[in-house]
Each structure stands twice: as structure tokens, then as C-alpha cells.
Design goal:
This protein is 25% helix and 34% strand. It contains four helices and nine strands; from the N terminus they run E-H-E-E-E-E-H-E-E-H-E-H-E. Strands 1, 2, 3, 4, 5, 6, 7, 8 and 9 form a nine-stranded mixed β-sheet that branches. The longest helix has 15 residues. The protein is elongated and about 55 Å long.
Length: 178
């Protein structure tokens, strides 16, 4: 492997699957709080992106959002439902990218379950605003970069590595397959 990882003395690659992948998605999404929701993804072309926050992440790892039916995002999902979510929880760890498919619905019960009073900034008629839609993103693959033991231990290891001239960064990364 031709990368910085070849200098790492500790194991730093760990792919996660099934329930472990879902827990990793929940953990890193919670740390990030908000993230970039990307649509119109085509090789060699700029993609559309906007900051968003999930209203919920369910037990299957699906991310749920409220969105306006007249938004660019909804129009782009109707044309191509493949999306990418980009997360950054801190300056040095808690990074993740997820690829998945998005579904748009107008399920009134689900809107009621996901409603938060602050959403009235975008939906001025409240939870009954006719523009509200629900977007469900079902991740099918991803990748993460994190620390094994938290930022404090990671910083100590990096400092030690800098002193002795060896790689000790406490990083862990791998594929995410829910």
C-alpha cells in the first residue's frame, strides 16, 4: 500500500458492516450535527450541495429530512435519486462520506413525527405547510476517518510520533456498509 498508512505501526484500517456500520453512521452524524447534502452527482461535473441536518437517523441507518417541494434539492432528487452526504465532526476526526438513494414523500404522519418548531423558519405555515416533504436517505456505502481512542489520546500519540520521528496518529478508517 503506497500511502501514509504504510508508516503506521498500529492497525488503522477497519471496515464496518451491518449493525456496527449503522452505529458508526449514528455516532459520526451526531458528532457532525450538520453536514453537506449533495445531489446531481455526475463524474467530471460540479455537484449541487447544501448544508443540512437530519431530523432523525433510524435503527436501519436511514437519515430523515424535511424539505420544501419547490427546492432545488427535491427537483434534483426527482431527476436522479443518488445522493452523497459529507460529514465533519471536528477539525481532526469524525469524518464520513455516505452514498445512498433518496426518496421523497408527503407522508403527513411522518412530517408530524419529524417536525421541530424551528422548522417554521422555512415552513411558515407550520407542520401543515403544503410545501413540506420528507426525504429519506438510505445509505448503501460509505467511508469514515476517525480516532480509535479520542482526540486527547490522538494528540498525545501524534506529539510522541513527532518527537521520535515515527507515525503514531491513533487513526482508524474504513468502509461503511450498512
Amino acid at each position: 500500500m503506497d500511502s501514509i498508512n504504510k508508516n503506521q505501526k498500529e492497525e488503522n484500517l477497519k471496515d464496518v458492516y451491518g449493525p456496527e456500520a449503522i452505529e458508526k453512521i449514528k455516532e459520526l452524524a451526531k458528532k457532525a450535527g450538520s453536514f453537506f447534502f449533495c445531489t446531481a452527482i455526475q463524474t467530471g461535473k460540479p455537484f449541487a450541495t447544501r448544508p443540512m441536518a437530519a431530523e432523525e437517523i433510524d435503527d436501519e441507518g436511514n437519515l430523515w429530512f424535511l424539505s420544501a417541494n419547490d427546492s432545488h434539492k427535491n427537483k434534483e432528487i426527482q431527476e436522479d435519486n443518488r445522493v452523497q452526504l459529507l460529514f465533519q465532526g471536528s477539525s481532526y476526526s469524525d469524518f464520513m462520506t455516505l452514498y445512498g438513494t433518496a426518496e421523497i414523500s408527503t407522508d403527513k404522519q411522518r412530517i408530524k413525527e419529524l417536525w421541530d418548531p424551528t422548522m417554521k423558519n422555512w415552513f411558515t405555515e407550520g407542520e401543515d405547510d403544503p410545501r413540506i416533504t420528507v426525504i429519506k436517505v438510505s445509505p448503501n456505502e460509505g467511508y469514515y476517518w476517525d480516532t480509535k481512542n479520542g482526540m486527547a489520546v490522538g494528540m498525545i500519540k501524534r506529539a510522541y510520533g513527532a518527537v521520535v520521528g515515527e507515525t503514531f496518529d491513533d487513526s482508524i478508517e474504513g468502509k461503511i456498509n450498512p
